[in-house]
Amino acid sequence: MATYIFGHTTPDSDSIIGAIALSYLRNRLGYESIPSRQGEINPESRFILERFGLEEPILKSSYSGEDVYLIDFMERSQAPADIDEANIIGIVDHHKLGDLTTSAPLDMWVRAVGCSNTVVKQMFDIFNIDIPEGLAGAMACAILSDTVIFKSPTSTKEDTKACRELAEIAGIEDVRALGFEMFRVKSDISGTPKRELVLRDFKDFNMAGSKVAIGQLEVVDLSLFDNMRDELFEVMEQIRVEGGRDTLILMLTDIIQEGTEILVVGDSLDRVREAFGIDLRDGREWLKGVMSRKKQIIPPLEKSFNDV
Length: 308
Ligand code: MG
Ligand code: MG
Ligand code: MG
Known about the structure:
By secondary structure, the chain is α/β, with parallel strands linked by helices. It has two domains: 3-185, inorganic pyrophosphatase (n-terminal core) (Alpha-Beta Complex), CATH 3.90.1640.10; 194-306, DHHA2 domain (Diaminopimelate Epimerase, Chain A, domain 1). It has helices at 13-28, 43-51, 116-127, 133-146, 157-170, 175-187, 194-199, 229-242, 269-276, 293-306; strands spanning 3-6, 33-37, 58-59, 67-71, 87-93, 107-110, 202-207, 210-219, 247-254, 259-266, 284-288. It has a six-stranded parallel beta sheet with strand order 3-2-1-4-5-6. Strand 2 (33-37), helix 2 (43-51) and strand 3 (58-59) form a beta-alpha-beta unit. The chain is globular and about 55 Å long. The termini are far apart. The chain binds magnesium ion (3 copies).
């Protein structure tokens, strides 16, 4: 029976490219594997797939009775609805320990690095399997995306090393230039419906029983959002209420200035104020030096929600 390999809901480039890369590796090792995805392909991932001539993973949202291998997530809130009826045979990830569990032993490749594709690159090395040029280029892009061209506090030496080696295989001379080209593509939000923007890189979390959603948009210039915030707040509130969420935060991250403006709606603004020691006047605040959801937003927020 083939194994489906897929990443989190609202897939990003790490989830899409990681599913392709890990499937390729496992197929080479003799385990029949099929890359899949839980949602639409975002413009950045589309750019990578086209640039390196890769086929997109199949869209599949139900996995009852299937063998599955997860990449880039291990949270129930980011999994298919019928995940409990699937057989999780392995996980490759770089997030905090999630709340999924299994009834049988599994492979866990979890590292505190900046990108799941860094872990997959290390797996290729361990199993001594060559990476095709196009796949290597795409994996390098996934690392550039997740580490925000190595600027994110999540980025490690291992990510830089893996990315450099992948770029060499792919024949990419200036990997940073490729990174900035990719982020410029990602920054082109003109004409995109606001709802789509809020949901583009969107994750739900369970914090002490409250449903908290955090979306993130990474752009090369924050002024792109001028005159757009009122409409963003409106759409954020709609999405929050529809999904029965307590709080919804949208991170507007400026990768050049290296900071994030957060927009917040919901019932627990005081929890957010406490988490970051901020006023949050008009529901927004600039957080200097903040670029990472997993490392700089989730931990203080979770602590604040857990405080009695
Ligand atoms: Mg991801
Ligand atoms: Mg990732
Ligand atoms: Mg990210």
